[in-house]
Design brief:
α4 packs across α5. The longest helix has 24 residues. The protein is mostly helical. It folds into two domains: 55 residues, no CATH class; 114 residues, 3-Layer(aba) Sandwich (Rossmann fold), CATH 3.40.50.300. The strands form two sheets. A two-stranded parallel ribbon has the order 1-4. It has a two-stranded antiparallel ribbon with strand order 2-3. It has seven helices and four strands. This is Adenylate kinase active site lid domain-containing protein.
C-alpha cells in the first residue's frame, strides 16, 4: 500500500513526502528478523531523522564517512561507461585497456551527464546543505561516529581513502 502511494508521487515527477518514506522504513523495520538494521543513506534530512524518532525508531549509531568533496568529484568524473552493455570504467582504478574505448567491443565510452564535474559539484553542494545539519543532529545525541581515513595515513597518501575508511570502520563498529 505505502509503496503504491510512493510510486504515484514518483510517477507524477514529485518527491515522496517524508511521512510516507518514514512509514515505509518503519514497516520494513517491523518485519526485520534482527534487532539490528543498517539504513544506508537514510535518513537524509533532519526532518526525516525527527520523523524516525517520532515513530519510535531508535538510532543507536550513525556513521559519517567523510571524503573531501574534490576527491569525490575527481573519482566520479573519472567514471565512463559503455552504453550498450553498462560496463563501467574508472580511470583511477579500473581504466579501459584503450583510452575511451570499451575493452570488449572497442566502441566509444561515454560519460553520463551527472558524472561530469560541474554536475557532481552541484549534487555535493545539495548533499552538504542537508548532511551537515543531520551530522550535527546525531552528534548532539551522542550516536555519531565519523571516519575520514586519517588514522590510516599510508593508505590516504596512496590515494586509497576508501580503503583507509574501511580499515578504520572495522574495529570501531564491530
Amino acid at each position: 500500500e505505502l509503496g503504491r502511494a510512493a510510486k504515484s508521487h514518483m510517477d507524477a515527477g514529485g518527491l515522496v513526502p517524508d511521512e510516507l518514506i518514514i512509514g515505509m522504513v518503519r514497516q520494513e523495520l517491523q518485519s526485520a528478523s534482527s534487532g539490528n538494521v543498517l539504513l544506508d543513506g537514510f535518513p537524509r534530512t533532519v526532518a526525516q531523522a525527527d520523523g524516525l524518532d517520532e515513530q519510535g525508531v531508535a538510532v543507536s549509531l550513525a556513521l559519517s564517512l567523510a571524503v573531501p568533496f574534490e576527491e569525490i568529484v575527481r573519482r566520479i568524473s573519472g567514471r565512463w561507461m559503455h552504453p550498450a552493455s553498462g560496463r563501467t570504467y574508472a580511470y583511477d582504478y579500473n581504466p579501459p585497456k584503450v583510452e575511451g574505448r570499451d575493452d570488449v567491443t572497442g566502441e566509444p565510452l561515454v560519460q553520463r551527464d551527472d558524472d561530469k564535474p560541474e554536475a557532481v559539484r552541484s549534487r555535493l553542494q545539495a548533499y552538504g546543505d542537508q548532511s551537515v545539519p543531520l551530522i550535527e543532529y546525531y552528534r548532539a545525541r551522542g550516536v555519531l561516529a565519523s571516519f575520514d581515513g586519517s588514522d590510516q595515513p599510508e593508505l590516504v597518501a596512496k590515494d586509497r581513502r576508501s580503503d583507509a575508511i574501511y580499515a578504520s570502520l572495522g574495529p570501531r563498529v564491530a
